[in-house]
Amino acid sequence: MQTKILLTEQEMPRQWYNILPDLSGPLAPPLHPVTLKPMTPQDLSVLFPMALLEQEMSDKRWIDIPDEILDVYSLWRPSPLYRAHRLEKALGTPAKIYYKYEGVSPAGSHKTNTAVPQAYYNKKEGINRIATETGAGQWGSALSFACNLYGIELVVYMVKCSYEAKPYRKSMIETWGAKVYPSPTNKTNAGRSILKQDPNCPGSLGIAISEAVEDAATHDDTHYALGSVLNHVLLHQTIIGLEAKLQLKKAGDYPDVVIGCVGGGSNFGGIANPFAYDKINGKNVRLLAVEPAACPTITKGLYAYDYGDSTKLGPVVEMYTLGHDFVPPGIHAGGLRYHGMSPIISKCVKEGLMEAEAYTQKMCFESAILFAKSEGIICAPESSHAVNGAIKEALKAKEEGKEKTILFNLSGHGYFDMTSYDKYLSGQLEDYEYPAAEIKKALNKLPKV
Ligand SMILES: *Cc1c(COP(=O)(O)O)cnc(C)c1O
Predict the structure, then answer these.
(1) 111 in ligand 1 pocket by Cβ < 6 Å?
(2) How far is the CA of 227 from the centre of ligand 1 (A)?
(3) What percent of the chain has pLDDT over 70?
(4) Helix (H) or strand (E) segment spanning residue 369
(5) How confident is the model at residue 360 (pLDDT cuts 50, 70, 90)?
(6) Cβ proximity of 54 and 45 under 8 Å
(7) For residue 175, what pLDDT band results from cuts at 50, 70 and 90?
(8) Atom number, ligand 1, closest to the C-alpha of residue 268
(9) DSSP-derived secondary structure for 111-169
């Protein structure tokens, strides 16, 4: 009875998988936030290095991972694939449950998989300073770890309510050497204008993105980095799914359903896209994205062009969106509170290649605790959605008396996020579904293109 299915460092994939050439057609072009005309690589080169922009639009299916990046990846990759024997037993399910564990990375989540290549390509093009935002702090810590490796100065705009609720994430970011500010700050025009309207604004990812983009656009030596949503981010994350495929092959298995939680869609795309490749080529596999009912971007949002950030500085892209000035309620899965969704995942859901469900937070914590008690790992509040999705599928298999193979991505651990577990355990956690009327209001402000 094998529990961990491992790969050696030599077996680590040498290429990322780019899904773009396998989609039914090209993605709608990103538009300039002011002119609403397609953006050129020159427009975007203020923010990103050319190597990442090339990946963003590449029509090459397989993209080599530079040796220098593989070297760093080997600090925690290949990550383990677990067979959840004890969880299966606790559920009494005939289903086989596998999970890919990304919490083994230095920052404790999958985000280092893209933080390292982003820092690497920026350094290679001579960039010595990067500005970014972070929601719950995972991206800020992952990028701080990566920037330190390459001697890049990093400034992190951290959503204020998380900055206050998760002080140890801030300490992690600072340990690896970055500067971190609670957003909205008075350091940018975007931050100042929000503070003028609401001095107690708890912040949002959209606002923090605006601040970081403004910082990068107004400093010649500075680039911007995004931890999710963009095509190149999903590309880097595909190492998760590519490894999982090799591991399942070793176990002599193939999933009926692949599950991941979605904030901006990167860990889900990371595990699901390599399986989407099989599905496009005739395999029968379900690809299930799960999101919080409090931020139901795919299940309740609109598929439309929208701004990526609150103050309309960044590109306008076609995606599922709750509206760019959506300020999510203070739920605990801080990393799942973005108003938009990866254009790749959006298109795949729109065309029926992938599907989505939304869960309220109490059932997710309940699942997380069953998972911790049976498998030992205390998962991140974000990942608890994927755990809940897997448990739901396993219980359905039990009801139907069917064998089924379930694979989910355990995107990270919750060791710096115990306040949320405290709240759940002391009965203070409330369920919340974002009201349809609020969504309708926010969607009235989409750009007219
Ligand atoms: C950031 C984060 C997420 C959500 O982001 P995606 O880009 O959708 O993957 C999920 N889980 C963890 C642990 C995270 O840190």
Answers:
(1) yes
(2) 9
(3) 98
(4) helix 361-375
(5) very high
(6) no
(7) very high
(8) 9
(9) THHHHHHHHHHHHHTT--EEEEEESSSHHHHHHHHHHHHTT-EEEEEEEHHHHHH-HHH
Of 65-69, 132-136, 432-436, the poorest mean pLDDT is in 432-436
- Compute CA distances 391 → 94, 147, 426, whole Å: 12, 37, 23
Q: pLDDT-derived band of residue 330, with 50, 70 and 90 as boundaries? A: low
pLDDT at 334: 66
pLDDT bin (cut points 50, 70, 90) of residue 243 is: very high
Residue 65 DSSP code: P
In terms of Cα–Cα distance, which of 20, 33, 111 is closest to 313? 33
The residue ranges of every structural domain in the chain are: 67-108+234-443
67-108+234-443 under CATH 3.40.50.970, yes or no: no
The alpha carbon of 260 and the centre of ligand 1 are apart by a number of angstroms equal to 9
Among residues 370, 405, 396, which one has the least CA distance to residue 96?
Answer: 405
Contact 288, 406 (CB under 8 A): no
Is the CB of 261 within 6 Å of ligand 1?
yes
Q: Is the dihedral of CA 294, 355, 264, 41 positive or negative?
A: negative
**Mean pLDDT computed over 289-299:** 95
Two tokens, residue 18: 């780019």
**pLDDT tens figures, 387-429:** 999 999 999 999 999 999 999 999 999 998 888 899 999 999 8
pTM exceeding the 0.70 threshold for the entire prediction? yes
Q: Is the C-beta atom of 327 inside 6 A of ligand 1?
A: no
Q: Is the Cβ–Cβ distance between 265 and 344 less than 8 Å? A: yes
pLDDT (average), residues 233-261: 98
User: Tokens at residue 220, please?
Assistant: 């010649």
* Cα–Cα distance, 240 to 270 (Å, whole number): 6
Give the nearest ligand 1 atom to 227 CA.
7
Q: Which residues contact 218 (CB under 8 A, 6 or more apart)?
A: none
Instruction: State the distance from the centre of ligand 1 to the C-alpha of 37, rounded, in angstroms.
Output: 31
